[in-house]
Queue: 3 jobs
Job 1
Amino acid sequence: MNNTNWIRADGLGQSDCPVFCINIKANGRIKKVTAEVTAIGIYELYVNQKKVGDALFAPGWTSYHNRLQYQTYDITDYFDTEESSVAIQCAPGWAVGYIGHGNTNHMFFDHVSVTAELKLEYLDGRTETYVTGEDWQVCRWDTVRSEFYHGEYRVYGAPLERLGMAVADAAPETRLISDEGCPTREQERVPAVSLIITPKGERVIDFGQNLAGYVEIRIKGEKGERVRISHAEVLDKDGNFYTKNLELAKNINTYVLSGTEDILKPKFSFQGYRYIRLDEYPYENVDLSAFTSVAVYSQMKRTGSFVCGHEKINRLYSNTIWGQRSNFIDIPTDCPQRDERTGWTGDVQVFVRTAAINYDVERFMRKWLRDVMIEQRADGAVTSVVPGVAGRGDRISTAWGDVCTVAPWELYLAYGNKSMLEEFYPMMERWIEYMRREGEEEYLWLGGDHYGDWLASDAILCPEVREGATQTDLIASAFFAYSVSIMVKVCRALGRDSSEYETLYGNIKSTFRRFFMKDGLPTLYPKYDAFSTTRPVKGLTQTSVALVLRFGLYDGEDERKLLTDKLVDMIKENDGKMSTGFVGTPHILHALSENGRSDAAYDLFLCEKNPSWLYSVNQGATTIWEHWDSIKDDGSFWYDVKNSFNHYAYGSVFDWVYSWVLGINVRDDGAGYKTLDIRPVADKRLGFAEGAIDTENGRVGVRWEFADGKLRYTVEIPDGSLAKITLADGSAHECEGGVYTFECLNNLVYRIMEG
Ligand code: BGC
């Protein structure tokens, strides 16, 4: 599509939703009609007042200044042989509307604009092309105003009201590309569970499930009557509707009724919520069956499944899935409700492996990673929010920027597609070079402006101090080593020479050890972070030990054992709880399991105190929370504001569940689940565990259960894959595609963890 023929409407307000229309007469018998459309803002295409397709929020969110997607539609079936009306309704969306913490508008462009090209092919071989221009009209229609954060105002039954003619607009400075994402669609439908009259006397409907999407209401009222609903994730400790944590995002939808039966829902907005409050509703009686909560997210194929004999873990699994659904709306976001909903790189760095098990996210993630690559700074720095929104996420932080090495590698492992590595190799290379140049030590990353072990409980002094206690120099240098170790594997997978990265890794490791290790344990390097006055900075923390173990920064088996024992002791000393945040949490269980202490990993996994994964489950969570204790024991909140109940990061615990509970592991040289290490570690507290991943080759599945004093396994290997299955009794079995069953005596169950 050419980047020409843009039109806009004159005199629009910030949130107005103009419709650009034209009538087209067919000059003969039609064979095919296609439309190519895109907008600055978001749009829906209508032919003869019927919406084309079922995608929401086209053209999707990309790094708009660099590239903007357009969509191609076959609209033959919508067309009339005589005359057809074509209408493109627009809203400010991400490009023009309010986006980014602090509720700023015009992040990318200052007004809504649209371009379209329609091609009519006749049976006699003639073609005609219609493009947007000043012969198009501007109208107002049903949706009058809409914003992602603030909700929509929609008048049902409103006719198209002509406002004037479109004005030619300058083409935006960007490149038009054909759609490469996954369309956002309506997905699950969740019925209302109950009507609550709160202590304040407000009518609140509970859908029993936090999610991102919108509420659909079926209603027949008098023409002109209004329905206005507010959204909330939680009730406060008194049982009242609570919206302060949404910060500046209003999340209010207002509808004016047509007088016939209406199905109310927004077109250009979504909310993150579990409850709605009926602010205006024409009836005394509330018929719950008229209310449905509709989940909205990008189309992805579900690939993972998991169930076990522990109901709370099953709920945690469900919460993880809902966390992904709610935050995979065109790009991976931190949360779907408050005035953020942006592409925080650290959150997805942490979650990407789990995401790629739950769903096929290859296409979804590739689109976003292209924007990460495009927005990478010339010096190699990767920002913390992509697409970048001014004033937010331009900090360069370890573990956030590392998404550019971690994500392509994890996606390659999951789907076996080398082009994922080839395409993003230059980005990874530049990020490594950036870290190498940062600070005065070539082989460490000292100084910098990091988020640290974000939200770790070992240093939350007050809600404004969130970086955790672990020294950020240590974290940054450990992640430098980690990213370089990934580069070594990437080079090997691509048949490139890996020796330069091997040497670099060796140098980082020896320098890291000189600066940050003492008597076999992590220690403080008292130059940079140690002088921080805002929080107590420590060298030895659960997170630092876990990172040293995970990233291979120890020296020899004795030190490895010392570190593992220390980690177990530190957890014990902390009342059996972890003290890790965004950086340490994804690694702590792996660090224990990889070093023969799956028993301790299970203890931590099943812990129910605060902080723990199950604490939020006990508090009634239906999604993963931003903070371990977003709701505290006494029912009060961790913080009045900035407290999301739908952040997927800690759901990354499920990559440990797949690796160790089910024991499904892809080998580095068998990407795409071609060669596998299957080594489940059973624990009686789960009773049984069963799960599968639908891979390119077919289904990989594992089930184990304790029965009759024995541990029974069923393992399914897809045709074309090879697996080494290691059981609790230490026996190993090389297997090709097929379904296998095994039995072990359960008193040997932990044996393989001693390795
Ligand atoms: C986001 C996070 C993000 C963080 C940066 C928050 O406001 O919600 O999930 O990673 O900022 O530390």
Note: Confidence is low (pLDDT under 50) at residues 748-755.
Job 2
Amino acid sequence: MKKALITGITGQDGSYLTEFLLKKGYEVWGIIRRSSSFHTGRIDHLYKDPHDMPRLKLVYGDMTDGTNLSALMNEIKPDEVYNLAAQSHVRVSFDMPIYTVNADALGTLRLLEAIRSSNRAVKFYQASSSEMYGKVVEIPQTEKTPFYPRSPYACAKAYSFWQTLNYREAYGLFACNGILFNHESPRRGETFVTRKITRGATRIKCCLQEKLYLGNLEAKRDWGYAGDYIEAMWLMLQQDKPDDFVIATGESHSVKEFLEEVFSHLDLDWKKYVEIDSRYFRPSEVELLQGDASKAKKILGWEPKVTFKALAKMMTDADMKTAGDEKILKEQRQ
Ligand code: NAP
Ligand code: GDD
């Protein structure tokens, strides 16, 4: 039985990847951080399935603790490591640049060193990001497009990209960078713009809130579905040789377009409910991202399945159910 170790297992991608690998017959180990409250909500359902439970194991760890990562590597002896852990919020990285770089850049190096010193043939996936393209120098962005990072988060991810490539070239490690463009789902964190919009719009529809406060509505992103993207991570590690791949839909849409999609699905006019709040603007913005995933299509046979429209609908429908439940609970309390 193949063994995979996932950092960031409690996050959006970690939860989808865990489901995917368990279905493929893997034993999955996940690193979780100690917290004063439960934060395994995205993977709790996997423990309820008697087939999955014995093959899913959680251990404590942190990307800022290299000794712990080394000990885990020696204890678990994984065949594949997926490094998904990160302080992944771009706006927050301006408030916490040192921590972000510690976890997202040095954390990757700590993990790479833990793998190298374990002297085992481990395959490594690094969650690289389209944010590295930042102030884009060409449209669309490919594996050959130079980086121009615009935030502490993006600088940290660029560092990790190069370290991953360096460990591949210097030590022959099977290490791949997936340069993933934005990908969303009903499990997306609620402070990222798509989920903030679907949560806000559905709560407005259920009379649970009156306004939705947002920042730059003109920014454009290449938005795909997380469930599609995690398969590309796995495919990269099943190839004969390690390489780097852009994973994207090839389409770019503005925040405004996403708003229109969601509010019109709920028969609402977003202009009546959305207010601009300067707190949500960034000191330096990434105005446009649009990826070209032809290399992934050619070599991995990977293509996105869920369209922009279907993604907005999927997220809105899921949040409509949550808002409906919230409304019932509120009425029962009154
Ligand atoms: P996410 O939902 O924010 O999940 C991040 C995960 O990292 C969580 O499990 C979090 O644990 C964990 N984590 C954070 N700091 C940590 C630390 N110091 N030590 C150990 N674990 C830590 O992110 P996501 O959307 O799933 O993204 C997964 C990865 O892909 C991230 O590296 C992200 O930067 C990258 N990425 C994401 C996208 C996207 O559009 N989603 C695109 C490109 C790249 P807690 O639950 O304890 O907070
Ligand atoms: N979060 C947020 N909140 N973003 C807003 C808001 C708001 O209220 N209003 C407008 N935006 C704009 C941001 O300025 C940005 O241009 C765009 O919406 C998307 O913001 P996020 O959803 O926070 O995502 P991101 O593109 O900054 O970063 C995500 O994608 C990256 C890949 O390109 C994250 O998942 C990163 O971890 C990931 O690497």
Note: The chain has two domains: 3-185+224-247, 193-220+252-288+306-333.
Job 3
Amino acid sequence: MEMTLRWFGSAFDTVTLQQIRQIPGVTGVITTLYNTLPGEVWTREQIHSLKEEVEASGLHISGIESVNIHDAIKTGSKNRDQYIDNYITTLKHLGEEDIHLVCYNFMPVFDWTRTELARKRPDGSTVLAYTQEAVDALCPETMFASIAGETNGSTMPGWEPERMAHIKELFEQYRNVTEEDLFQNLKYFLERIMPVCEQYNINMAIHPDDPAWSVFDLPRIIINKANILRMIQMVDNPHNGVTFCSGSYGTNLENDLPDMIRFLKGRVHFAHVRNLKFHSPTNFEESAHLSSDGSFDMYEIMKALYEIGFDGPIRPDHGRMIWDEEAMPGYGLYDRALGATYLNGLWEAIEKGAIHNGTHRTRN
Ligand code: CS2
Ligand code: MN
């Protein structure tokens, strides 16, 4: 595996490439063209200059998160082919720039959903949190407004104000879209992009829906083992894989995370590893990465990744806001650096333990 950090680009991120480079064991960044909207073609020049900037710092681009999918593709509208063509052109340009991993999601309207971006913990740190009661008390329009005041001035990924301004129309577009339709629209999209993925050896890594259940009655499909099995089988190509995000699948306590990782052997192209602390099944917050601070056994999660021969990028996912840092919620420097270091420590111990026991893994 390669330890990485997400970086939104110098115009948008409070964290610098130089700071990322100083985190021991972090060699790559997961980045994006943050000022593009879903559906736009990424030009080769834009990608090339991003790559040059990253490489000048001594790091490299380990993958893209995300190339977002236009709503026309998700809803299966008549004009979807034009947006799929644009997506294919973007993939081609990424491949030409030697980038081989693309994370995306297929969530209707909203990307991840949280009800608090700065819940205060007893130690004074703040974290993102979710309660179903708070969601049930909101309507979609107020959802966006309710978090907009807590973002420390950032645009949150997947919550582009340009799209949110049209939230009513977006809901209208999804009104008759069922889970079955979403599966079919995802299949159509994947079938069309697989040839370019094969040509340029690009791994597509779908990010799970977060939380892993329906929000505001919108259909959600990438939520559990049965549904990912369906997704993988319906377009059975090794380039059709997943981002294993422990904090997203983990929102549903019925998901057995190490078991899901083992079952996905060969199809996990990217991993987001973070911990959650549950107060009840529908009230959780994003804790520090350390197992004892949350509800997940991070050792077992890392061990499962090790045992399937995972050799793609891992990134600590959201971190707490600590040490008076002001940054995009979830994406400060300090706690993600602590997370990366902790996860690297777990990995080293697992790997050395396996060498010692003679069970050292080979690749996928
Ligand atoms: C991320 C997602 O910040 C986050 O929660 O894990 O926004 C993720 O980047 C997208 O869903 C992937 O397309
Ligand atoms: Mn994630």
Note: The radius of gyration is 19 Å.
